[in-house]
UniProtKB/TrEMBL annotation:
Protein's name according to its UniProt entry: ACATN protein
Family matches, as SUPFAM superfamilies: MFS general substrate transporter
Membrane association type: Multi-pass membrane protein
Presence of keyword Cell membrane: no
Species of provenance: Cisticola juncidis
GO biological process, one term: acetyl-CoA transmembrane transport
Main location: membrane
GO cellular component, one term: membrane
Alphabetic keyword roster: Membrane, Transmembrane, Transmembrane helix
Membrane spanning stretches: 6-22, 43-67, 87-111, 123-140, 152-175
Record-linked Pfam families: Acatn
Tagged with keyword Membrane: yes
Annotated compartments: Membrane
Gene Ontology MF term list: acetyl-CoA transmembrane transporter activity
Amino acid sequence: DFLFFWGAVFLITTTLVAFLKKENEELIPAKEETKGITDTYKLLFSIIKMPAVLTFCLLILTSKVGFSAADAVTGLKLVEEGVPKEHLALLAVPMVPLQIILPLVISKYTAGPQPLNTFYKAMPYRLLLGLEFAFLVWWAPKVKHEGGFPVYYYAVVVLSYALHQITLYSMYVAIMAFNAKVSDPLIGGTYMTLLNTVSNLGGNWPSTVALWLVDPLTVKECAGAQGHACATAAAAEV
């Protein structure tokens, strides 16, 4: 029902925009950005060959490796430790207003000549929160009781997630502001799309690798079955 409702809202609003929004025909661009797909890819290739852009792409592709495991695995590990999925889902609700307000607040600090300063300042705090997330997973079985988890545990989880959102959005808004600032206005759309795509990829591939490494890096012991290993998923099932 939730997906159906918002799907309907999405279709209605985009259809209204398509029929009711009129382009300003007086503002004709000085030069057409590209003439087709081939031209677009040639343009992207020429952009990425620039030494400064290439260096920046390498930096943003690797900048999120340090907190990929904490971001991708914490929720799954909390569920594994017995925290109900529905409770974790409910904890995401207070994050919604925070996610709306944060970009508005952070944009004031990223509007200056050096937007990446906010990115640099947020990084060590986000790395420390990774350790704090690890503590939450370790702490979960210690405080668990027959009725579930105490309220103070959920309060700590919500506070931790809120602090994490602040660091996450500080880095996200800063990188978006920087991409907007350095993009050539003549080819702004193509330039920004390239940088933002690389930035998104820099967040996705470390999370994928972190999830893939969970099983091989998890230490397991077989209880009551001497001489049997359970390092792999198949062996653990046996």
